[in-house]
């Protein structure tokens, strides 16, 4: 049964969408328009000129044939697949102090993804408030598909400033849109990362926007935008990931503030997850537009990570010199093992780094130090966060 | 009657409203009559383009046109969600919606399932916007009760 009103409303929309799909008229909108005109003209003439009534009726009948109903043939219901399923609700807000521009229509939509690990097929359906849908089917890999198949229009709004300094639409309707992986990651060292790699745990009790208790992982970036030809402005971005007790990402929130220019926020909330029985032809690509695949990069330098797209280039603030000097000392110390872990001799270097750490990563840095002191493996999140911080703030 | 100079505007009008009208009618006339009902509505719009083009809520008006020109039969009306096509939709949703009084059922369908505004819905059903709100509240309360919906996430 539906969990709450939002889900009840979603189910009503899905039902209407499905019924509407079953009565799609043959032909394009242009043909629909022409048929309606013919029908309208025919009726008008029938009234105005009685002698042409028969012709008008014939035209009407002809038009009716144009509108013969296509009832989608149900697949062989005896053959079904069990697939992974995830449904989320996406919404975005944007406040600009600039001349705004927008492509698309809607600022909220429903994202459903079905994953067939065995058949290596993934389907994402985006349903917009008007009931229209955008379907994407990937084969081979959800990140680096052999081929992509698309159907329907993308109606999500892309908002921004006319000068291109800022924009928002974090979910790309042409990607597989599950919040949690539905396939084994390729393990190529590429930039397929999630909350565990990018965020650090924020202490305290947290709940997502629907009130579900969760562990909050957060990543923050501060710096200046570096849009070409424009004066740099201060930018602060925060990504929050709410993760339940099973390690399932239940909500992702991304905010971006650009000084004097914009505040944008996007929220993707998981509302259903599990397995589903679907018809055997659920991943049929008949009627879809085929697009080329997305080759897996040979090296990370070529990585094209899927998922949230950023539309603003950010140059990170450089960390304090003392911090970066301590990092460099650690790098030169030879106390980092080949597998990335720290030898006991690394503790003094890590202490120096922790002492000089900027406040926003001090907790992660301390966790790393504690692990090194205890001789235990570094907590993945802290290590990853710290490493990325080093790269972003102390190099280049 | 429209003239050739209106062709582009009329085509844009169809593009803007066809999906919305089709969805709305899918909940109000038998599925095998929806396409014809849509065609009747747009034919009417073509014949009366001067008037329809300036309407504030044309889709609500055309909904009434389509309904009035459609065959009225009870069979095949509002078939329930197909569990194979919609595996994540509660099977009891269809009977629960069909059990609503006609006015409440229409309001739920137009406002919730189709995303129509209160104004469009009021125009379509020839009632006031406040009545739309009243019907919607009652209908959703009843659906929540019938389906055992809780607000516990």
Q: Counting H and I runs of at least 4 residues, what is the number of helices of chain A?
A: 8
Mean pLDDT of chain B: 83
- The string of secondary-structure elements of chain A, in order, is HHHEEEEEEEEHEEEEEEEHHHH
Please identify the structural class of chain B as seen in this structure.
mainly alpha
- CATH topology grouping of the largest domain in chain B: Rna Polymerase Sigma Factor, Chain: A
Q: Architecture of the largest domain in chain B, CATH level 2?
A: Orthogonal Bundle
Strand percent estimate of chain B: under 5%
Report the sheet with the most strands of chain A, covering strand number, pairing sense and barrel closure: 12 strands, antiparallel
Give the oligomer, counting copies of the same chain as homo and different chains as hetero. heterodimer
Task: Give the fraction of residues assigned to helices of chain A.
Answer: 25-40%
Task: Evaluate the radius of gyration of chain A.
Answer: 27 Å
What is the CATH level 1 assignment of the largest domain in chain B? Answer: Mainly Alpha
Radius of gyration of chain B: 17 Å
Number of helices of chain B: 8
Portion of residues in helices of chain B? 55-70%
Sheet with the most strands, sense and barrel status of chain B: none
**pLDDT below 50 for ≥5 consecutive residues: which ranges of chain A?**
25-32, 43-78, 299-315
**SSE pattern of chain B:** HHHHHHHH
Strand content of chain A: 25-35%
The count of DSSP E runs of length 2 or more, i.e. the number of strands of chain B, is 0
Main attributes of the structure:
heterodimer, A: 396 residues, alpha+beta, twelve-stranded antiparallel β-sheet, 27% helix, B: 153 residues, mainly alpha, Rna Polymerase Sigma Factor, Chain: A, Arc Repressor Mutant, subunit A, 2 domains
């Amino acid at each position: 049964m539906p969990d709450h009103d939002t889900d009840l409303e979603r189910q009503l929309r899905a039902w209407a969408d499905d019924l509407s799909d079953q009565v799609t008229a043959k032909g394009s909108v242009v043909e629909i328009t022409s048929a309606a005109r013919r029908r309208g003209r025919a009726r008008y003439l029938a009234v105005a000129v009685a002698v042409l009534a028969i012709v008008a009726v014939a035209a009407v009948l002809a038009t009716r044939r144009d509108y013969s109903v296509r009832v989608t043939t149900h697949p062989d219901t005896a053959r079904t697949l069990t697939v992974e399923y995830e449904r989320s609700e996406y919404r975005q807000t944007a406040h600009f102090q600039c001349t705004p521009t927008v492509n698309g229509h809607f600022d909220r939509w429903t994202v459903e993804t079905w994953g067939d690990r065995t058949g290596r097929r993934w389907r994402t359906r985006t349903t917009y408030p008007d009931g229209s849908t955008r379907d994407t089917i990937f084969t081979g890999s959800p990140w680096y598909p052999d081929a992509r198949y698309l159907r329907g229009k993308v109606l999500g709004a892309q908002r921004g400033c006319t000068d291109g300094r800022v924009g928002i639409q974090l979910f790309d309707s042409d990607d597989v849109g599950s919040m949690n992986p539905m396939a084994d990651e390729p393990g190529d060292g590429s930039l397929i990362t999630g909350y565990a790699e990018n965020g650090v745990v924020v202490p305290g009790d947290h709940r997502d926007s629907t009130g579900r208790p969760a562990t909050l992982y957060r990543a923050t970036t501060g710096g200046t935008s570096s849009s070409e030809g424009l004066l740099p402005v201060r930018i602060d971005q925060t990504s929050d990931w709410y993760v339940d007790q099973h390690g399932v990402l239940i909500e992702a929130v991304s905010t971006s503030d650009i000084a004097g220019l914009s505040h944008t926020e996007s929220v993707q909330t998981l509302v259903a997850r599990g397995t589903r029985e679907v018809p055997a032809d659920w991943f049929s690509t008949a009627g879809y537009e085929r697009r080329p695949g997305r080759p897996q990069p040979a090296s990370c330098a070529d990585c094209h990570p899927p998922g949230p797209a950023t539309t603003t280039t950010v140059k990170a603030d450089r960390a304090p010199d003392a911090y970066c000097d301590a990092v460099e000392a650690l790098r030169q110390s030879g106390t980092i093992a080949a597998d990335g872990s720290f030898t006991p001799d690394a503790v003094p270097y890590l202490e120096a780094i922790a002492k000089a750490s900027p406040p926003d990563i001090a907790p992660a840095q301390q966790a790393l130090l504690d692990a090194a002191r205890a001789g235990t493996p570094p907590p993945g999140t802290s290590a990853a966060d710290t490493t990325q911080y080093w790269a972003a703030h102390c190099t280049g | 009657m429209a003239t050739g100079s209106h062709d582009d505007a009329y085509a844009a009008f169809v593009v803007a409203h066809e999906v919305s009208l089709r969805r709305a009618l899918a909940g109000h006339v038998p599925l095998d009559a929806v396409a014809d009902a849509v065609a009747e509505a747009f034919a009417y719009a073509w014949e009366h383009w001067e008037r329809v083009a300036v309407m504030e809520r044309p889709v609500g008006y055309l909904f009434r046109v389509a309904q009035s020109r459609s065959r009225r039969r009870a069979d095949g009306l509002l078939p329930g969600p197909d569990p194979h096509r919609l595996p994540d939709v509660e099977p009891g949703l269809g009977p629960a919606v069909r059990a609503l009084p006609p006015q409440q059922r229409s309001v739920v369908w137009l406002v919730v399932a189709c995303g129509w505004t209160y104004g469009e819905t009021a125009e379509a059903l020839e009632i006031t916007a406040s009545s739309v709100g009243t019907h919607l509240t009652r209908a959703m309360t009843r659906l929540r009760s019938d389906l055992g919906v809780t607000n516990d996430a």
